[in-house]
Design a protein that fits this description.
- By secondary structure, the chain is an alpha/beta fold.
- It has one domain (20-87).
- It is 43% helix and 20% strand.
- A four-stranded mixed beta sheet has the order 1-4-2-3.
- The longest helix has 14 residues, at 41-54.
- It is globular, with a radius of gyration of 13 Å.
Length: 92
């Protein structure tokens, strides 16, 4: 935890015990998710629902693109679902 903001987010997640994490990014119109740390059918179901209501396809990031992200950290540390929703397209 190199920065105060990182420590604050880490502490928040430790204290609040969130069931899910959602990260928003720009430029992709897709939903990234992983079952790497939580092999729950609930995770797959939630991913499918998110895709259905948003119209965005489900994608998986390569390991090199996941490393160091909040969603990856949350999923690995807490063994709970984390989704990155990439909004809009790169031209906007």
């Amino acid at each position: 935890e190199s920065e105060p903001e990182t420590k604050a987010i880490s502490n928040l997640c430790e204290n609040e015990l969130f069931r899910y994490a959602f990260c928003l990014s720009v430029g992709g119109e897709r939903i990234y998710w992983s079952e790497q740390y939580d092999n729950l059918s609930e995770t797959a179901m939630m991913a499918k629902v998110l895709s259905s209501v948003s119209g965005y396809p489900l994608c998986r990031k390569e390991e090199k693109d996941r490393l160091g992200t909040f969603c990856e950290w949350f999923n690995e540390k807490h063994r709970r679902p984390a989704f990155e929703v990439s909004l809009g397209n790169r031209e906007n």
